[in-house]
Amino acid sequence: MTSRAGRITILTAAIAALLYGAVAYLILPAAWTHHEHQPGLAQKPMVTRTKQGIPGDALNVGLVGTKETVNRAMQLAGWYPADPIDMESSVEIVGSVLLDRPYKRAPVSPLYYEGRVEDMAFEKPAGRSADRRHHVRFWQALDKGAEGRPVYLGSVTFDRGVGLSHDTGQVTHHISPNIDADRDGLIADLNKGRVLEAIYQVTGVGPTLNAKNGEGDPYWTDGEIWIARLTPDAETTYKTPLILASPQIVQWKNAVMQRLGQTRGDK
User: How far apart are CA 173 and CA 112, in angstroms?
Assistant: First the structure.
């Protein structure tokens, strides 16, 4: 009996070790890292920085195309290029918020990626004033990606209102914690603009429930970056964009993260 119990114990331990090995070295790496569609991004950082070097917004969207193509595609999708920050735009955005008047090209504060300020920024109003808006910053991450074209990585979030920074006390916009919703919304806008050839996911910052951006605002995400391959010169297409599926384990992980994030609320 003792010998049989020992064999069962050894067998149980062996099965447990095999399961651990499969999860730790096969399943989880497959869920966390899948840059196969854009391998040049594999070693890139996936979080922006403030001027002070504080981790900022997570990268969650990407576009494949030249700068001119990105600019045209975003405007066809209903997004407006943000004005540069200067005295005139600063006065105008304050007037927009205080007087509740439109300012569709309101400037965005600078963020840095690999030591560089954003190459482009766009926004989509969500109300009458610049108090509430969707906005995205883009940086060129690759001169030539897998498709032979430049790849821009971006961080898209929703400004839900103006307030004081949790960290510095300065006046700033506060973002909604569900950054995946804005990522998915931007891809949907590009699809409506009929400028998409294909979309696919690559691993971003990774599944996150308790992160904070450079202003101290909390956010959560499934950790994926949706990459949109634009049509050449953002020419209109009536073809349905090709969707390159993520590994099944990644899809399961995304569903779980969405459920967990939604239980936290988006206020």
Answer: 17
Residue with tokens 């391959």: 229
Compute the distance between CA of residue 174 and CA of residue 166 in angstroms, rounded to an integer.
Answer: 9
CA angle 13, 16, 18 (to 5 degrees): 110
> For the segment 181-230, what is each residue's pLDDT rounded down to a tens digit?
999 999 999 999 999 999 999 999 999 888 888 778 889 999 999 999 99
Integer Rg of the chain from CA: 21
Q: Which two tokens stand for residue 87?
A: 């005295």
What are the structural domain ranges in the chain?
A: 1-32, 35-264
How much is the pTM? 0.82
Residue type at 94?
A: V
Q: Which two tokens stand for residue 200?
A: 């696919």
Distance of alpha carbon 136 from alpha carbon 126, whole angstroms: 14
The DSSP bridge partners found for residue 200 are 227, 244
